[in-house]
Design a protein that fits this description.
With 120 residues, the protein is mainly beta. Helix content is 0%, strand content 61%. The strands form 2 sheets. Strands 2, 4, 5, 6, 9, 10 and 11 form a 7-stranded mixed beta sheet that branches. A 4-stranded antiparallel beta sheet has the order 1-3-8-7, with no helix packed on it. A hairpin with a 4-residue loop joins β7 (67-72) and β8 (77-82).
């Protein structure tokens, strides 16, 4: 089993910064990747950033140059550093992990989400 808890959301002015955290617990050794998604009201859920087991990263075009995904393996935590925030970044942000279960095979798990609101 793997569990995820997001934190770090809040209210920030346009141009400001926030750092989101995704803390993993349980069988963290089995995690293959962690994604950050976001979903704004009335819009489709969007993949924002990805970090793999090997440390490679990818970003949505809309956040390239502004957001950075990173990890601290000792703390079992993945971060999303969000700079130069825009009102259109307002959304609930979710982390998502893909992992291997001994009994059930490949699984995914989602955190509960954390709200980011960017004011103009």
């Amino acid at each position: 089993q793997v569990q995820l808890v997001e934190s770090g959301g809040g209210l920030v002015q346009a141009g400001g910064s926030l750092r989101l955290s995704c803390a993993a617990s349980g069988s963290t050794f089995s995690i293959n990747y962690i994604n950050w998604y976001r979903q704004a009201p009335g819009k489709q859920r969007e993949l924002v950033a990805v970090i793999s087991r090997g440390g490679s990263t990818n970003y949505a075009d809309s956040v390239k140059g502004r957001f950075t995904i990173s990890r601290d393996n000792a703390k079992n935590t993945v971060y999303l550093q969000m700079n130069s925030l825009k009102p259109e970044d307002t959304a609930v942000y979710y982390c998502n992990a893909g992992y291997d279960s001994d009994s059930l095979g490949r699984l995914e798990v989602w955190g509960q989400g954390t709200l980011v609101t960017v004011s103009s």
